[in-house]
Amino acid sequence: MTKPKAAAVIYILMLFACLMSHTARAALPEYTLILKNHLFYPQVVDVPAGKKVRLVIENQDAEPEEFDSFDLNREKVLFPGRRTVIYVGPLEPGIYDFFGEFHPNQAKGQIRAVTEGQPDVD
Amino acid sequence: MKPNRVFYGALCLLTLLLSARAVADGQVVDRVYHPYVLANEHRLEWRFMSRQTSEENYLAQRVGFGHSVNENWILELYLIGERDEQGNFGLEAYELEARWMMTEQGQYWADWGMVFEVEKRHGQNQWEVASGLVMEKEFDRNSLTLNWFMIYEWGENIHDELESEFRVQYRYRWMPQVQPSIEFYSGENYIGLGPALMGLQRFDGQKQLKWELGFITELSNIGKDHTLRFVLEYEF
Predict the structure, then answer these.
(1) Among all residues of chain A, which has the CA nearest to that of B164?
(2) Is B195 on the interface with A (CB under 8 A)?
(3) How do the domains of chain A map onto residue ranges?
């Protein structure tokens, strides 16, 4: 087999392996936020440090919003009337800002990653 | 980490390393793709690449327009211009590109996507199709991104051949406007490495300007071979 053909076979095997590795889904801690009148409720969410979590954001407004956070490295459109899942972490203890791009002065919030027994991240 | 993830991770890494010196006779240095697609997005893109060797300067530019068709797919159409052997710069090719976000960001051990490209040379019966596997892994404020392309080209006056290209970017997300990185490119007869910067500036709503700037030096040959590349991307 020539080298490019061998590379192609490995490529396909790798793609298959990568798809297979994503079939299992572990249960993650889940936190729900509501977006209403361009405000996030709650505005501050405490999550455990060092663990991956699911943020479920329900956009109750009539228009889309865009969740944006450089700190969390996440950007996601929140469609009106829908629940959107954003996977976050594992995070170091600290405060991570996020905002809505279409209403950046109103739609603001923070994720506080806290160590168990040490709720003060400041 | 579960044992099967370790196994698949090791398999992925091994196959990427084995393929790192595969066949490619085009310009290997390009942008490193990330596996993410944002819904409701339109984008205008300008890519510039200048490769200076001891003998010549190779210049290529492309402009593109992209539109995300849903939360997982984006289509982008490019016009590609290159400087020919007579030193004239003109339209050389068209390309249609589709990118697929295969997994939600952060859901799994790494994020995965694919890139599909079809390119036709302007005025000639020469074609190229490519499939690229894209992976990104976050480590705190660092991101490691891998691209592996399989490319097949055919048509008049060229050899029908299967090629492979490999790209790696290690990026530190320092601040939105300035994110330094190291980039690595590989194809046959080409191994390149160099520093790069990327960043973005937000405006109202979804509007933002992204940029990338990289200077890649060829490592496998003795002669001079440097590539300057930059990308400007306006998203709206």
Answers:
(1) A4
(2) no
(3) 28-114
Question: What string of pLDDT tens digits covers the 236 residues of chain B?
Answer: 444 554 555 444 444 444 443 333 467 898 999 999 999 999 999 999 999 988 888 899 999 999 999 999 999 999 999 887 777 888 999 999 999 999 999 999 999 999 999 999 999 999 999 999 999 999 989 999 999 999 999 999 888 889 899 999 999 999 999 999 999 999 878 899 999 999 999 988 788 999 999 999 999 888 889 999 999 999 99
Q: Is B27 on the interface with A (CB under 8 A)?
A: no
- Of B101, B104, B93, the closest CA to residue B126 belongs to B93
Closest by Cα among B172, B105, B110, B102 to B132:
B102
Which numeric CATH code is attached to A28-114?
2.60.40.420
Place of tokens 């050389």: B92
Contact of B133 with chain A, judged by CB distance below 8 Å, is answered with: yes
Cβ–Cβ < 8 Å for B191, B216: no
**Residue A116: Cβ-neighbour burial (10 angstroms; 0-12, 13-18, 19+):** exposed
Nearest by CB to residue B39, choosing from A21, A68, A77, is: A77
Interchain pair B38, A74: CB under 8 A: no
List the structure tokens of B121. 């040379």
Kindly list the residues from chain A whose CB atom is less than 8 angstroms away from the CB atom of residue B140. 92
Domains in chain B (CATH in brackets) are: 3-235 (2.40.160.40)
